[in-house]
Amino acid sequence: MSMLSCPIDINSGSAYESIETQQKREISSALKQKRKNKKKYTFDSSTQLGTVPLESVENLCSPTVEDWKEENVPAYDPWKSTEKRDIIRCLIGGSKTTKMKFKLAERQRIMNLQKENSCNLNLKNNFVRFHI
């Protein structure tokens, strides 16, 4: 059985010197990175051109364009909007049996949608364009 020897002789002191030089390099690179970040994220008042004092902004009037009370916008119902789309819905709350029934109904709904989509794709694929 042969013994493997370490390429770095610990007794000579060169191993410790190489470790120290590597640590010095790491520290210097970390300091350089710190200086770069400090320059990048330091905000001086001279660099903040175009800032406006709060008092002058308070006096400005902004016209209101939207009137939510007068506009007749239908309410958003997520259940109706996802009913005909291939999106997985979840039931929040309810007992275990109602959740299980809901999961089964959702699986059936998604399978039906996928069947409809595959039929529609087959109809579309029947018409092929020929470039002459």
Structure notes:
The protein has one domain (about 20-120). The protein contains 4 helices and no strands. The mean pLDDT is about 75. The protein is mainly alpha-helical and about 130 residues long. The protein has helices at about 15-40, 55-60, 80, 95-125. The longest helix has 30 residues, at about 95-125.
How many distinct folded domains?
1
Order of helices and strands: HHHH
Give the beta-strand count: 0
Number of helices: 4
Short description:
This is Proteasome subunit alpha type 4. The protein is an all-alpha fold and 132 residues long.
Question: Which descriptors would you attach to this protein?
Answer:
mainly alpha; 4 helices; 51% helix
Q: What is this structure's SSE topology?
A:
Elements: H1 14-41, H2 54-58, H3 78-81, H4 96-125
